UniProtKB/TrEMBL annotation:
The lineage of its organism: Eukaryota, Viridiplantae, Streptophyta, Embryophyta, Tracheophyta. It comes from the Eukaryota. This is Protein arginine methyltransferase NDUFAF7. It comes from Escallonia herrerae. It catalyses: L-arginyl-[protein] + 2 S-adenosyl-L-methionine = N(omega),N(omega)'-dimethyl-L-arginyl-[protein] + 2 S-adenosyl-L-homocysteine + 2 H(+). The keyword Methyltransferase applies. Keywords: Methyltransferase, Mitochondrion, Transferase.
Amino acid sequence: MATRLLSPARYVPLLFRSPKVASFQPFAHPSPPFFSTHIVGDSPILVRDFIHSALYDPSHGYFSQRSGSVGLLERSIRFNQLAGRKAYMQYLDNIYKQNDVSWFTPVELFKPWYAHGIAEAILRTANLSVPLKIYEIGGGSGTCAKGIMDYIMLNAPTRVYNNMTYISVEISPSLAKKQIETVGEVRSHLSKYRVEHRDAAHRSGWGDVEQQPCWVIMLEVLDNLPHDLVYSENQVSPWMEVWVEKQQAR
């Protein structure tokens, strides 16, 4: 990734104590590349690298260190017992207060029906004459994988379930462990399921191209992908690339 700027860069301090954000001239010489595992040090880094490090760095990343980053409900929500939206929101408020987790994914809140809907679509459109192969990127607590495998076990021909492969590509070690525990609640699933602990965005982890058709499931992934940030003061000002720099606390 080239780090030489062709237009003025705008630095955003880590501690937003000052209302002013200063702009800087382009670097006179190319700087060494900043990779996503770098913590913000004395040199500024791109927003995409700051986000990746903050979320996924093995030593301090949010998903790497927080075992309760994604919640797991003990039982399904009985929506037929909730009297409308207000009751649903109150129910959500209660379960968040009772659980030390950051959030519950939609597939968790609407289990098993959310995953069953995905599984039904797969069975309806897949070529079942070849072994079914499913990849899930960022499998959370494993609820989606278990729900899909449950549905296929109960509704598909026996040979489809017996010959299927379900692969979770998970960057977080704590979530990878939780996924195996969740799917393992049905023992027969484990011989068909595995977790690959790696970054799905790295091409090298995928190996050689395979001709076998497969399904790729990505739930709540796009909003957690690193991205760039550009800024322009007004409609006639040039676009500037945003970098992040450390600011000492005052």
